[in-house]
Amino acid sequence: MTGTEEKTGTDENTAAAAEPLVELERVTHVYPGGVQVLTEVSLRIERGELVAVVGPSGSGKSTLLNLIGTLDRPTHGVVRIAGHSVTQLPDQALSALRATTIGFVFQHFFLAPGVTALDNVADGLLYSGTGRGRRRERAEAALRRVGLGHRIGHLPHQLSGGERQRVAIARAVVGEPRLLLADEPTGALDSVSGASVVELLRELNASGTTIAVITHDQELAAGLPRRIQVRDGGIVADAPRAVAAR
């Protein structure tokens, strides 16, 4: 490689690193029937941030999650994830972006009953083209990462709520996504288990994963570095990035 090629590659990497991981520009979303849920929303989430998106039921935060997670496309405006415009990508490319870049954690775990923790997590790699043996190796590493190396052979009904949520988080991060979206991750847990899950999310963030926690829990949101408040389809408050970066 020549010096010019090396410099060009470095410049491209620097530019990519400088881009926000999530960027919304004047996004409006209208559901069939004319129900408008988001109106002219603009938002940036930088790489490495730990963000709470907080608001009451019906505020539009779940729609915002679906747009950031590329599960929906905006009616108007632009959504960019890792520099890719969601509105311009064909369905196959959008699915590939979702599979390689985004991990999802939901309130109710969605673990397959009768399937061990190990294989529930390994199933997170089903569409990655990875062989079964390698999927299980990576699943075991992910379970150890979330503190469940001693529970890999247990079935969901043999685990506590907090442990089931840790399995769900392991499944979400087994593919090493850059962005983790956690939708009410403590909503079905007691306070002790919930605090443990939040601490795990902090640890994952410290290791480099960008995380957005969608919640109506003001106390949970208050403990995170940056808080974005959604109400009536718009962002009504956003903690300064200078605070979030500390």
From TrEMBL:
Keywords for the protein's UniProt record, in alphabetical order: ATP-binding, Nucleotide-binding, Transport
Matches recorded under InterPro entries: AAA+_ATPase (IPR003593), ABC_transporter-like_ATP-bd (IPR003439), ABC_transporter-like_CS (IPR017871), ABC_transpr_LolD-like (IPR015854), MacB-like_ATP-bd (IPR017911), P-loop_NTPase (IPR027417)
Entry annotated with the keyword Transport: yes
Pfam family of the protein (one): ABC_tran
Gene Ontology MF term list: ATP binding
PANTHER family: ABC TRANSPORTER ABCH.1, IMPORT ATP-BINDING PROTEIN
Protein name per Swiss-Prot or TrEMBL: ABC transporter ATP-binding protein
Organism phylogeny: Bacteria, Bacillati, Actinomycetota, Actinomycetes, Kitasatosporales
